[in-house]
Specification:
Layout (H helix, E strand, L loop, with lengths): L3 H19 L15 E7 L2 E7 L2 H11 L4 E4 L9 H6 L1
Antiparallel strand pairs: 1-2, 1-3
Length: about 90
Amino acid sequence: MFSTPVICFLLLICSLYTTAAMGNAGCSQVCTREYEPVCGTLKSGDKLMHCSFPNKCLLNVRKCKHHEDWSMKPGVCFKDTKNCRTILTD
């Protein structure tokens, strides 16, 4: 009926369409409510931002969704940056 190259081409088109439609859907957004805080640090230009995240999973979701290069260490930050509340709810 269909030749192998035609079937392969159709599968390729379908997979590309699915990937494009997903956007940031590839980022896991399901995290547990465990409270194991981590201090996230992000260098933005010449400034460092420090934000305490409730757990590693939530920091990783932020990194993935916004393509940011956060580093982390266990525990809450000594002092959070002023706009952390916005970062944590975005």
